[in-house]
Amino acid sequence: MGNKMTLISKLTSWFHNKGKVFVALSGGVDSALVAYAAFQKLNNSAIAVTANYQSISTNELNHTKQICSEIGINQIILAYDELQNTNFVRNDKNRCYYCKSELGENLQELVKLHDVNTIVDGTNIDDYGDYRPGIKAMRDNHIRSPLAELRFTKPMIRKTAKLIGLSIHDKPSNSCLSSRIPWTHKITKEKLVRIELSETIIKHETNVQQLRVRDIDGIAKIEVGKNELKLLTKNKLKSIKSKLCLIGFSSIIIDPEGYKTGKINLITN
Q1: In this structure, are residues 265 and 131 in contact, taking their beta carbons and an 8 Å threshold?
Q2: How far apart are CA 241 and CA 238, in angstroms?
């Protein structure tokens, strides 16, 4: 326990002399832990900022509000429409760069209004092992990552979050709705809406925790945690297929390998 307490102490100490801070809060355990540490050190000089854009689900947005209430930190909701960004909508391999660049630019504008000294996010050291052009975009906008700087890994983050009592400590990793659409396939409001609805339907029908519905030319490719594949029974899949076809999907397929991060990067057509 002492080692874990040292970890949270290190993270809290990182905010010493940082002045007023914005925490880019996405709703995951990483940024939640950063927000907790910032608030512990800075109190009301730490403010969570969450982007309310087309690619975030309503459920995920509401979850960020619950996290902020739990921590006690004030939250600003930053609303904008990334679908007005033609580079983003094109959905090439730099999609995340365009998205995070727009977020970073909006955060920098917000900084001027609130006299903020530092912006931080929840990037951790393990994130550098995947293809994440969004990380470069955040660095380009002078946004720092205390977890990465202190070399926190994902397991360290979850253990620390559990120790301090954050309810989000075991929340499955998530990503924006646009990440369900393969590169080169245009991102549209229609696709984002049906992806969000389909994931809500499947979770309600099956109680799966780890879920992605990939929209591949109108076909819903369903990925769940490998240990949750057994929850997709024949009867449930029949009901799911019927409901997903009603909201615009032509058919469904189940990935027998289960969910794996970064898999969408391999689907290009």
Answers
A1: yes
A2: 5
